[in-house]
Amino acid sequence: MKVLVLHSLPPQVPAVGRRPWEFDLSAAADGIKVALPEVAVCGVRGEVSEILAALEEHQPEVVFNLCEAPLCRTDCEAHAAALFELLGVPYTGARSETLSLCRRKDRTAAVLAAAGIPVPRAGVFPCIVKPADEHGSAGIGTDSICADADAAVRAAARWNGPVIVQEFLPGREFAVALWGATEPRHFSIGETRFQAPLRLNTYEAKWEIESADFAHSPLLYHTKIDPGLRESVVAAARGAWSAVDARGYLRVDVRLDTAGAPRVIDVNANPELSPEVGMHRAVTEAGWRWEQFVRRQIEWAH
What is the CA radius of gyration of the chain? Predict the structure, then answer.
C-alpha cells in the first residue's frame, strides 16, 4: 500500500507569543518513517497548491495526516482533512467535522454536556479562563486561574478572541489516550503531578522544556489509581470519544472535582505523535510497539 505522511512545517514567521516548534510536525513524521521505512514523507507549509502537488506526485492510497494549523493558522486545522474528504483520499485520524468541533472548547463542552458527559460548571469560582478557539495550552498561564468575577473579566480581556470560563477543578488530572478504528477499544492513562506552586498546564509547561512550569508538571504513568476511579475516568473519556465522533486516536484530559468525581476538561482530536511524548508515549506505556500503532492507523484510515 502506498502511504504518504503529509506533515506541517514550522512557520517562517510565528505568531506573536507562539513558538515555531509548536507547529512543526517533522519529528512526528520522522517517527512514522522510522517505524515504516516504506512510506513517503512530505512537509508542507499549508498552501492548497502544495498539498495537491504532493498528492499528484505520490499518488497515495492513504495519507497519514499530520497537517496541523496550515500557514500557522489554528483556525484552519480541519482544512487539510476536509480537502482529503473532498478528493476522496483516505486519511488517518479525526474527520474534519471532529477537528472543527474540538478546536472550539466552548462548543465541545456543550456537546459533551448534552451527551451526559460531566464537564466543569460555569459561574463557579475559583474559575479558569482560557481561549475557546486554541489548542496546545495557548493563552494559558498561572494567572488564568481567577478567584472572582472581576479577575475573570481581566483575564478574558488579555486574550483577543473568544474565551471559555469554567470552574477550576482542584483534584488530580489525567491524560487519557484512546485509540481504535471507530470505537475506543484501547486506552492508556497518564497523570500530571503538579508541584507547588503550579496548579495547571500552562503554555510554558507544554512547550518550554527548560521552564519551571515544565519541571513542575511531570506526566507519570502507572501511578496508583483506585479501580473504581480508573473505571469512571476511562468511562468519561470514552463518552467524549463517542460525543465528538472520534476515530483513530484521541486524547481526553480529565480532572477531578471537589467531590473527587471526574470531569472532562479538554478533548484533543489531533494529539502529539512525536517520539517519546503524547500518543507515542501513551501507546508504548500500554505495551504496544509504535510500528503496531502506526500500521493500525493506516488500516483504520477511510
Answer: 19
DSSP single-letter state for residue 69 = S
- Please work out, in degrees rounded to the nearest 5, the angle formed at the alpha carbon of residue 253 by the alpha carbons of 247 and 255: 145
* Structure confidence by residue, pLDDT tens digits, 238-272: 999 999 999 999 999 999 999 999 999 999 999 99
pLDDT at 12: 75
Q: What is the mean pLDDT of residues 213-236?
A: 97
Question: 240 and 222 share a domain?
Answer: yes
- In the prediction, which pLDDT does 11 show? 78
C-beta separation of 108 from 267 below 8 A = yes
Looking at residues 159-180, what average pLDDT do you find? 97
Please tell me whether residues 46 and 56 are part of one structural domain.
yes
pLDDT band at 289 (very low <50, low <70, confident <90, very high): very high
Range of the domain at 228: 102-119+169-300
- Within this chain, do residues 137 and 150 fall inside the same structural domain, yes or no? yes
pLDDT for residue 14 is more than 70: no
Cβ neighbours for 66, distance < 8 A, ≥ 6 positions apart: 5, 6, 7, 8, 25, 28, 29, 32, 273
One domain for residues 161 and 56? no
Residues 6+ apart with CB under 8 A from 129: 144, 146, 152, 155, 156, 159, 163, 164, 165
Q: Are 158 and 226 in contact (CB under 8 A)?
A: no
Average the pLDDT over each of 73-77, 114-118, 148-152 and give the range with the smallest value. Answer: 73-77
Do 160 and 173 belong to one domain?
A: no
Cell of 27: 519529528
In this prediction the pTM is: 0.96
Do 115 and 207 lie in one domain? The reply is yes
**Do 230 and 259 belong to one domain?**
yes
Q: For the domain that residue 181 is a member of, what is the CATH number?
A: 3.30.470.20
Closest-CA residue to 238 (of 172, 178, 196, 148): 178
